[in-house]
Design a protein that fits this description.
Helix content: under 10%
Radius of gyration: 13 Å
Number of helices: 0
Shape: globular
Oligomer: single chain
Order of helices and strands: EEEEEE
């Protein structure tokens, strides 16, 4: 969602419902939209789809998105620029 790639070396904020917490990300893989195959990746470019692991500074309680859209979604914010970099 941002021109700068999602990069594990940068600091992020995770906004979930009414909470905002510091977060670290690790990109596990990228999804090739043409073949739907998982491809190795360390970053995700703009509009990229992938699997990431997120570690937050405090525990978050959440539901599946299907059950509750409010508590089952999040946004990831670049702590330096305040740009929204990802949604989940």
């Amino acid at each position: 969602m941002d021109e700068r790639a999602l990069d594990p070396r940068r600091r992020y904020l995770l906004k979930h419902a009414t909470q905002t917490v510091s977060a670290e990300v690790a990109v596990r893989h990228r999804l090739n939209i043409h073949t739907l195959a998982a491809e190795p990746a360390h970053t995700l470019e703009m509009n990229g789809i992938g699997v990431v692991e997120i570690v937050t500074t405090k525990p978050l309680f959440f539901d599946s998105y299907e059950r509750n859209r409010t508590t089952g979604s999040l946004i990831l914010i670049d702590a330096e620029t305040n740009a929204t970099v990802a949604a989940g």
